[in-house]
Structure formats: C-alpha cells, structure tokens
User: What shape does this take?
Amino acid sequence: MSGDPLGLVGRLRASGLRVTASRMAVLEAVCHQPHSDAERVAVAARRRIGSLSTQAVYNNLHALSQAGLLRRIEPAGGPARYEARVGDNHHHVVCRVCATTADVDCAVGSAPCLGASDTHGFEIDEAEVTFWGTCPGCRGLPGAPSLSRTATDRPTATAR
Assistant: This one.
C-alpha cells in the first residue's frame, strides 16, 4: 500500500485491532519518534489527523501496547515512553540532563540477557536494564553530571 510505507495497516490487522485514523496516527507517531511520551505522541498524531483527545491517545497507546505493537518503557523519575521496537529484549540509555533515550542491544544477544543471582522460583523471560549517563549534547553544560561524582550524588533529570 503506497500510503502506508511502514505497513501499519497490516500490523494492526494481524494483531486483531481495527484500523482507525486515530490508531494509525498514534502508531505512526511512535514509529517516527521512538521513545516518545504520550504528550509528544499526541502532538504528532494531532498534526496528522487534526483533533484527537488526550484520552484517545492514552487509550490507543494502551491498546497498541497490549497488542504487542508498541513497547512501554518507564525510566525512573520520568513519564512512560513508547517505542515500536518490539519482540526483542533490548535495553535503553537515558541522559540524566535532557532525558534523551536510545536503544542498547543486549550484551549477550539472547533474552533475558542477564542471569539473576536468585530467581526465587520465577521462570525469568526478560531483563530490563536502563543505563544512565550524559548524552553528547549535554556534556559540558553547567550542572551536567560528571564522571567524578559518585552514583549516590548524581542528580537525576526532572524536566522531560
């Protein structure tokens, strides 16, 4: 389909979800802007289709996540973010200053990538790791964390 270069219609149908303008707009927004929070998704989706309620954005993000088309990630201290990279057990690196988020492939390459020291009887199928640091754009800015600080006195980003 020429109007659907990402194959989103097929993905929606294969997941059992109805194809709606709002669902397409939300899914497309996340595909084009990985690691977006709901507010950023809403802005992009509204740009595509016009009016779209905040509740509709949240409902679609939830439905798409439940269907396995989106992955919801929740870096500590910040809003939930969404990405369309699903089906693998990759991790993330987050800037402490600006909250820029990027994907990091598994260290070992197969889920769950890490072994727990004690499983407490759980059958573990996934490991979630978030690496924290300072992105290239924020290094050297006043107040940016430096490597000389210890892990306990590093500030965490609050502005998203």
Remarks:
- The mean pLDDT is 85.
